[in-house]
Write a structure and sequence with these properties.
This protein has 545 residues and is an alpha/beta fold. The protein has four domains: 164 residues, FAD/NAD(P)-binding domain, CATH 3.50.50.60; 111 residues, FAD/NAD(P)-binding domain (3-Layer(bba) Sandwich), CATH 3.50.50.60; 114 residues, 3-Layer(bba) Sandwich (FAD/NAD(P)-binding domain), CATH 3.50.50.60; 94 residues, 3-Layer(aba) Sandwich (Oxidized Rhodanese, domain 1), CATH 3.40.250.10. It is built from 15 helices and 30 strands.
């Protein structure tokens, strides 16, 4: 069997390697229009920022090494121009000399990846404007920075790559500005959670322009839609990616509304003997059960095994993606899995949210850092739909735990039963994941009613501060009533049962205790999710621009 694979990074290389493990007699050709295969795509920003200092560390495999290990004919700098499924032929162009030739196949695997989105704006072709997709882009950017002594940079787009690039440019002592068209960075985050990242970015001295669009470029500036001009010695475009499927236009291979290749659970397309995977292929979202594009390395690698198995006649299926992702943003770590507020609202799907703040390990052990966990779940039976976490330490293992819960349709009450590793340097007897489950159950059964910072800002309810006196001196919500929690029972008659109260403490625990006291005495009360800390972070994000 002759198998031709289009694309030589995570998905394509994964299929080739597993196919060879299945059968030593397959004839396998892998085409890659770039000069490198199987490279560390996610590590590229860190090489630019000198966190990774050895270029060789970026290359997981070389074409020669891949051939020697797997006996695969690796053809780099060979671009697929078109596909003719009827005659099972590819039209291939040698990128170096421009010559074209035909190659036949028995089975075709499409893993062309995605390309950075670029809008046709004035000045977009200037030599100091870059995108970051592959090793060649990385080396070009790094060389430009060195040779031109870049002092000021503008990153267009506040997604994961944009934020990682902004951080790494900042590490090079380059004055960096982020321009984001939306109201917050990282579109899979909720705005109140993203507020913490906004503050972190600005605290590092990086300028952040939200609700802002670049409309033109010149040699030294980025012009925004407001007319403001941002100085820039270099510009990085990071406004998203789109499937690189233009070469399939006349092939008869079905594409979706975003030009993604449509596949089934085995990676099969609508055309016999043609498979697709990776960033260019649509996948099923395990929570919403809808087709989507999730351009991440982990799903691509898993799909590669399934496609190779299908070609070899083994019945395995890809069970879908949920978009689990994590990123370092200066001193903070942000992670998501499953659905978020925006996606649930777009589906008109009923949901509840809960928010809890706890330390990543025992509070009495040195170095304890806050973890903020936000959960989404169904309002009747509490099935976990998604989660978001922001913190400094311990974010990775908690999002992985929650990702498993989302994947297998667990309920928020199941989180309470997880027996997770505990020792003071690593966690707490009640792990933050357990605590997230306790808080979510209280929301689910109506024992607590949480309100978000935005709801607090627009509510006419009386704000009741139950923190200690010294905490109030550090800041408070305007026009709050102050009764410390230890005094609340004795001073409860100072409150009016005809009024509605929003209670807040530092991060939510004492507010919850006060909520129970007042509720049991007939008061109409809500608890501020995340307490004054979360409210203040959100308020600071909206005012410190």
């Amino acid at each position: 069997m002759k198998v031709c694979i289009v694309g030589g990074v995570a998905g394509g290389a994964g299929v080739a390697a597993r196919l060879r493990r299945h059968d030593e007699n397959y004839s396998i050709i892998m085409f890659e229009k770039g000069e490198h295969i199987s490279y560390a795509n996610c590590g590229l920003p860190y090489y630019i920022g000198d966190v990774i200092t050895d270029e060789e560390e970026l290359y997981l495999q070389t074409p020669t090494g891949f051939y020697e290990r797997f006996n695969v004919d690796v053809r780099v700098l060979n671009e697929i121009v078109s596909v003719d499924p009827q005659n099972k032929q590819l039209l291939v162009r040698n990128v170096v000399n421009g010559q074209q030739y035909h190659e036949s196949y028995d089975v075709l695997v499409l893993s062309p990846g995605a390309k950075p989105m670029i809008f046709p704006l004035p000045g977009i072709d200037l030599p100091h404007i870059f995108t970051l997709r592959n090793v060649r882009d990385t080396l070009t950017i790094k060389k430009f920075i060195k040779n031109n002594r870049v002092k000021k940079a503008v990153v267009i787009g506040g997604g994961y790559i944009g934020l990682e690039m902004a951080e790494n440019l900042h590490k090079l002592n380059i004055q960096t500005t982020i321009v984001e068209a939306a109201s917050h960075v990282v579109n899979t985050l909720d705005e109140d959670m993203a507020a913490i990242l906004h503050n972190q970015i600005r605290e590092q001295g990086v300028k952040l322009f939200l609700n802002s669009k670049a409309v033109a470029f010149n040699q030294h500036q980025v012009i925004l839609h407001t007319g403001e001009q941002l100085p820039a010695d270099m510009v990085l475009l990071s406004i998203g990616v789109s499937p690189e499927t233009g070469f399939l236009a006349d092939s008869g291979i079905a594409l979706g509304s975003r030009k993604e290749i449509l596949t089934d659970a085995q990676g099969k397309t609508n055309v016999k003997d043609v498979y697709a995977l990776g960033d260019a292929a649509g996948v099923n979202h395990v929570v919403s059960n809808t087709s989507t594009i999730i351009p991440l390395a982990s799903p691509a690698n898993k799909q590669a095994r399934v496609v190779a198995d299908a070609i070899a006649g083994k019945i395995t299926t890809y069970k879908g993606s949920q978009g689990t992702a994590i990123a370092q943003v200066f001193d903070k770590v942000v992670a998501v899995t499953g659905e978020n507020e925006r996606s649930l609202q777009m589906q008109n799907r009923p949901y509840l949210t809960s928010l809890s703040i706890n330390y990543h390990h025992a509070s009495y052990y040195p170095g304890a850092e806050r973890l903020i966990i936000k959960c989404y779940f169904t309002p009747i039976d509490g099935v976990l739909l998604g989660a978001q976490i922001i913190g400094s330490q311990g974010v990775d293992k908690r999002i992985d735990t929650l990702a498993v819960a989302v994947r297998y349709g667990m309920k928020v009450t199941d989180l309470q039963d997880f027996e997770l590793a505990y020792a003071p340097p690593f966690g707490s007897a009640k792990d933050p994941v357990n605590m997230a489950g306790y808080v979510a159950e209280n929301v689910l059964i109506g024992k607590t009613r949480q309100v978000s910072p935005l709801e607090i800002m627009h509510s006419d309810a009386i704000k009741l501060d139950v923190r200690d006196d010294d905490e109030v001196e550090e800041g408070t919500i305007v026009n709050s009533v102050h009764i410390p929690l230890p005094q609340l029972r004795n001073r409860i008659n100072e409150l009016n049962k005809d009024q509605t109260y929003i209670i807040y403490c530092a991060v939510g625990l004492r507010g919850y205790l006060a909520e129970q006291i007042l509720r049991h005495n007939g008061y109409d009360v809500y608890n501020a999710a995340g307490g004054y800390y979360f409210y203040h972070e959100y308020l600071s994000s909206t005012t410190n621009k």
